[in-house]
Amino acid sequence: MERVTGIGGVFFRAQDPDRLSRWYATHLGVDPVPESYDVPSWWQQAGPTVFAAMPADSEHFGGPERSWSINFRVADLDAMVRQLREAGIDVEVDPEEYPNGRFAGLRDPEGNAVQLWQPGGAALRGPG
Fold this sequence. Notes:
The protein is α+β, with helices and mostly antiparallel strands. The chain has helices at residues 17-28, 77-86; strands spanning 69-73, 92-93, 101-107, 113-119.
C-alpha cells in the first residue's frame, strides 16, 4: 500500500494571519510561508507524529469553539519553557512524566491550543 511520507502543511483560519505567523516564527522557530517558490519552506527534524481524531466534546482544544490544536516536538522542554516564559508567555508544564515523554501547554495569541512535547520511551526508538 502506498503511504504518505509526512505532513506537508498545517492550515487554519486566523483573525490576523501575519501577526500569528510572526508569533510562531519568533517564539517557536516555525518559519512563515515563503514569499516565493525560490525560498524553501520550514523543515522539521524527522521524528514521531501523532495524527489523532478526537471526540467532538474533548477538552483538549480548550472549548467547543476550537476545533484544532498543534503539538510540537522539542529537544529540551525545560529550555523551551524558560524561553517562552522570559518572553512573557504563560506556559503550563504537566508535572507528570509519561512513558512517551513530557508535555507543556500554552495558547497562541488567538487562543489556539499549542502543546510542546519532549519525546521519551518508544517515541525515541524510531519506527519498527
